[in-house]
Specification:
about 180 residues, alpha+beta, Arc Repressor Mutant, subunit A, four-stranded antiparallel β-sheet, two-stranded antiparallel sheet, 6 helices, about 10% strand, globular
Amino acid sequence: MELMFPWPGGSPGMVGSLMERAVLPAAADAPDPVVPRVGYLIYRVERRLRARLDEAVKAHGVTTQEYVTLSVLRERDGLSSAQLARWAFVTPQAMNLVISSLERRRLVRRRADPRHRRILRASVTRQGLRVLDGCDRSMDRIEADMLRGLDADTVQTVRAALSSCAHSLEATRPLP
């Protein structure tokens, strides 16, 4: 059974569930038009994408979190664990565990910052770049599957819209 409730700020004719929103029609005999919530659609895509990515990168010997970390380091060489943690939305302690594991496997190396010896700067090694290359090829296949049926202009529109959504959510995030 689906829980229906009025939407805050909506008109009395608007009802919905946690995952979809329906607007009651003017005519009693017409079916309710159901419009999926954008957040729910993004959640569905994220869950399916994450499941496929977890499986794909495992074949290359890394976790999804490690793949993301390596990818960020490739683009932003020399970040500290604390900086990487902010990029990956994890605690500095959790990121330190990820970096330590990657370092043990020689996928990253750390070196002391010349100005602040206690800060360790991470870089992807050649071996890490080889792993990244394999993961990237897997991600290319997953994205091709996900975007199948969309033309290049639509893909660009989706990319721009999702970037804008992420930026808007970050810009409006309540401070702790």
